[in-house]
Specification:
The structure is a single chain. The protein has 162 residues and is mostly helical. The chain has 5 helices and no strands.
Length: 162
Amino acid sequence: MDQLARAKNHLEVLLEQQAVFDDTSSNEYPKGVRSFRSNQSFCELDNKFSLAAEGTYPHTVHTPCGSSRREAGELVYRSFLHFWKNIEVESQRELVQDLTQFASPDNIEEIAQVAYKALDQTDLAENLGLACPLQKISFVDVKQVVTNKYKQLYIAFEKSLN
């Protein structure tokens, strides 16, 4: 009898959860159900998903005739994981492309040029807490500092992705 009462109580909870999911006008999660969270945190995940960029993308799962409920659940779960991997791969490719462009020698040269031009600006020197502008530093020195700092940031960023 105790098992029957627990089964009925659990059925009540499942029916309440199902009702929340059945309400397609809401993006709420039922009580006791965790919302989706990605292990990744880079901003490319927030860009448009290519398959849904122009319209709604129907993600479907085909369950063979005669499948058990457990087998159907396994198919749905595996399909979700495959779908999610495609999203991660797409966003990771975009991240690599963005970092490749950011790491280009032309970009480092441009950053060094901006930094070098800023050296003789009195108000910038004061904002940085320096006594006076740094006019005696050569462009080569600035470029070396920018390149070294860039390498440090790139390596730190790459490590944070792993």
